[in-house]
Amino acid sequence: MAKRVLVTGGTGYIGSHTTVELLEAGYEVVIVDNLSNSERFVLKGIQKITGKRVPFHKVDCCSLSRLRAVFKQYEFDAVIHFAASKAVGESVEKPLLYYRNNLTSLMNILTLMRETGVPNLVFSSSCTVYGQAEKLPVSEQTPRREATSPYGNTKHMCEDIIRDSVAAYPEIRSIALRYFNPIGAHPSAEIGELPRGVPNNLIPFVTQTAAGIRPVLSVFGDDYNTPDGSCIRDYINVVDLAKAHVVAVNRMTGDKMKERYEIFNIGTGRGVSTLEVVRTFEKVNHLKLNYKIVGRRAGDIEAVWADPTYANEELGWKACKSLDETLQSAWNWQKHLDGKK
Ligand code: UD1
User: Fold this and answer.
1) What pLDDT is stored for residue 148 in this prediction?
2) pTM over 0.70
3) Is 235 a catalytic residue?
4) Residues 76, 27: contact at Cβ < 8 Å?
5) From CA 179, how far away is CA 313, in angstroms rounded?
6) How far apart are CA 312 and CA 267, in angstroms?
């Protein structure tokens, strides 16, 4: 019988791509999402790609009773918990919203996993936990640094809640995946990133500028201590990232974990500057992007990229897709977006 995975935040950007990869790997998926930062029509995109209709429950993971009803309706083999608020700037303005949302939802999930006997949790963590590391690239052994935003702090705290829960409750285990910067879209252009309002993240801003929705892209700073002066990140294709979740679920449900709480960096191992992203986007999509250099963005770190060796060797997972094809997929998604709603 097919194993069943609960995906919280399954209509979101990473959640929808992971749902597709899980379905294609033979898993059954049930999605819960409160649609606070995603759209119901994403379900149609998932169905178009996979030919499968995914059960969907419009539920806020902060509601223990409503979430309990979902845990009682199905038997799950694993939970992948994406549902969370993720805008760094907003978290500074609304810290209580972020702490309540991100911490309560995780605690509800852990509570219900114990209550209903679901042993396996994959958690969406972030490279934000490393802050500006002294030594690059960062491995899982790199010490975490104090977070610079409430958002980042919730990732720290959620990791700690999981660590302590796994230590106390033998019936649960978890894999935390620390994502670097996920970008791009499914090659079918049926699903992708759907920012609401003015995008905070680089790639949706780039594609919206190319599409004429935004007049100009601001590149935040060219005076960093990097080869071209702009910040460096590890941009990972969202489909590669989605596949890492399938591997993590396989590992947990196949009893292959070495410890009951494991952490993996999910990145490419390659640092790319903001200006390199802009130039590559222009080159592979044969267009010119209107951009200007402006001052640094508060809270940005200078450079971070992953040492993904542990994930490569232990999970047998590797980021495969090139930056070129990833930036093509992002533009292709932007071009097809209008017809989607
Ligand atoms: C941050 C967090 C990440 C989090 C993500 C969620 C860190 C290291 N990363 O990613 O954990 O999941 O937010 O939103 O804390 N840029 C521009 N112009 C723009 C937008 C961005 O130049 O209009 C630059 C930024 O200065 C940065 C790079 O592009 O150097 C990437 O920015 P962004 O996409 O916002 O991601 P992070 O801030 O790296």
Assistant:
1) 86
2) yes
3) no
4) no
5) 17
6) 10
